[in-house]
Write a structure and sequence with these properties.
Layout lengths: L3 E3 L8 E4 L1 H10 L7 E5 L4 E10 L4 E10 L6 E7 L5 H12 L3 E6 L9 H18 L6 E2 L3 E2 H8 L4 E5 L17 E6 L7 H9 L3 E3 L8 H14 L1
Parallel strand pairs: 1-3, 6-7, 6-11, 7-8, 7-9, 10-11, 10-12
Antiparallel strand pairs: 2-5, 3-4, 4-5
Helix pairs in contact: 2-3, 2-6
Bound molecules: S-adenosyl-L-homocysteine.
Length: 233
C-alpha cells in the first residue's frame, strides 16, 4: 500500500495541496521527494493516486493521476460506549476504526465517570484519520458528541439489531447478530456497569442483553470484542 494522506477537500482531478499535520508527515517524517507517488483520500470514499510536484517547508503540491470512489459498507456497525479512563479511549477509537466500526457514540450513563470535552473528541478525530491512513480505510469512522443514555435509547435502538452488553448468566451470546438488518448497535456500560433502570429502558426499546462470557471485561475490551464479532459474522 502506498503512503496515504487524508485530505478532506480532495478534488477528483488536477492539483491538490497538503498542509498542516499531513504535510508535516509527508515532508519531515517520511522525507518524501518530488516525483514520489502517494495515495490521498477524503474520508467519504474518494481515493486518488497523486504525484508530488513540489515540496515546501509547510505544504506540498501534488498532481492527481487518477481517482475513484469507494462505496461505504452496506452494513453499519454502531458502538455506543461509556468512556474509559485515560488513553484507553484513544486505543478503543483506533482499534474500532481498524475493525470497521461505522459510528461511535460516547455515552453519559448513571455511573459514568469520564465525560470527554469537545476538544478531546476533536483530538480523537485525528486518531480516526491516522487509523484510516494506516489501515487503508476510506470512510472515516464518525465519532459523535456525547449523548445521554435516554437520548441514545430513544434515538438509536429498535431501528438496528440492538444489544446491550451486560454480564450475567441469562443473557445470550453473540451469534447471528445482524438479525437480518443492515445496521447493528451495541451499548457498553461504564466500569460500574449499567443500572437496572438503564437496562430496562433499553430492553423496553427492543435491545437484547448480550453476554461475552463469565469474566468482567474492561469497557474497551467489550466494545472491540463486539465490533470484531459483528464485522465477521
Ligand atoms: N461492574 C460491572 C462491569 C462493568 S464492565 C458489572 O458487574 O456489571 C463495563 C461494561 O463492559 C459493562 O457495563 C458491559 O457493558 C461490558 N461488559 C463487561 N464484561 C462483560 C461481559 N462478560 N459480558 C457482557 N458485557 C460485558
Amino acid at each position: 500500500m502506498p503512503n496515504r494522506f487524508y485530505l478532506a477537500n480532495l478534488p477528483e482531478s488536477g492539483a491538490a495541496v497538503l498542509e498542516d499535520l499531513e504535510a508535516h508527515h509527508l515532508i519531515h517524517v517520511l522525507r518524501a521527494s518530488p516525483g514520489d507517488i502517494v495515495e490521498l483520500f477524503n474520508g467519504t470514499g474518494l481515493v486518488a493516486s497523486a504525484q508530488i510536484t513540489s515540496l515546501h517547508n509547510r505544504d506540498a503540491q501534488l498532481q492527481i493521476l487518477g481517482s475513484h470512489r469507494e462505496d461505504p459498507s452496506p452494513r453499519q456497525i454502531i458502538v455506543a460506549t461509556a468512556v474509559p479512563k485515560g488513553d484507553r479511549f484513544d486505543w478503543l477509537i483506533e482499534k474500532a476504526t481498524e475493525l470497521g466500526v461505522t459510528r461511535i457514540i460516547p455515552l453519559r450513563t448513571a455511573r459514568s465517570v469520564v465525560d470527554p470535552r469537545v476538544s478531546k473528541l476533536e483530538k480523537l478525530r485525528q486518531t480516526v484519520s491516522a487509523a484510516c491512513k494506516q489501515s487503508g480505510r476510506n470512510h472515516l469512522l464518525e465519532l459523535e458528541s456525547t449523548t445521554t443514555w435516554s437520548d441514545f435509547v430513544n434515538r438509536e435502538l429498535g431501528q438496528s439489531a440492538s444489544y446491550i452488553a451486560h454480564p450475567g448468566p441469562t443473557t445470550r451470546s453473540p451469534s447471528s447478530l445482524w438479525d437480518g438488518k443492515s445496521s447493528i448497535v451495541f451499548a457498553i456500560g461504564p466500569e460500574g456497569g449499567f443500572t437496572d433502570e438503564e437496562v430496562e429502558l433499553a430492553v423496553g426499546r427492543g435491545a437484547k442483553p448480550i453476554s461475552l462470557g463469565p469474566r468482567i471485561l474492561r469497557i474497551e475490551t467489550a466494545a472491540l470484542a463486539l465490533a470484531a464479532c459483528a464485522g465477521n459474522c
